[in-house]
Amino acid sequence: MSKNALPPALREMAQTSTDEAARRLGQLISSERDCVQKLALLEGYLAEYRERFEQAASKGLDPSAWRNYATFIQRIEEAITAQRGIVDQSKQRSAQGQRHWIEQRNRLKAFETLSQRQREREARESERQAQKSSDELTARRFGQPLTDD
Q1: How confident is the model over 62-93, as pLDDT tens digits?
Q2: CB of 28 within 8 A of CB of 94?
Q3: How far is 106 from 121, CA to CA, in rounded Å?
Q4: Does the predicted TM-score (pTM) go above 0.85?
Q5: 9-140 sits in which CATH class?
């Protein structure tokens, strides 16, 4: 490795950071999906309970049963409101995780690009040195009289 080459540890650290960001993003997306599923479950339960309430109300309900249905429906609606907030927060965390992963991936790509450029510079320098050596050898061979050895 030449004195200007990037240390392999630098690329490895960038790769590790990128891998960790990808793993974390996967967790965030999974968590978001779970939150959305829970919200859908609550909304389905609310629809089902409202339907039960309407059926019971059509047959006649005493004030106590009416209050119980109304209270329970209100609690489900509050849970849905809270869950929507959780879903929004989860989506924000997922978006932030995605931005972080993109930053880490771009950083890794930058290190890889720098490393590739360094390898290309070293290859060109090696080719120049080989050509110079070949030219010097040719100049010595043709610049000096030939001997029969």
Answers
A1: 999 999 999 999 999 999 999 999 999 999 99
A2: yes
A3: 22
A4: no
A5: mainly alpha
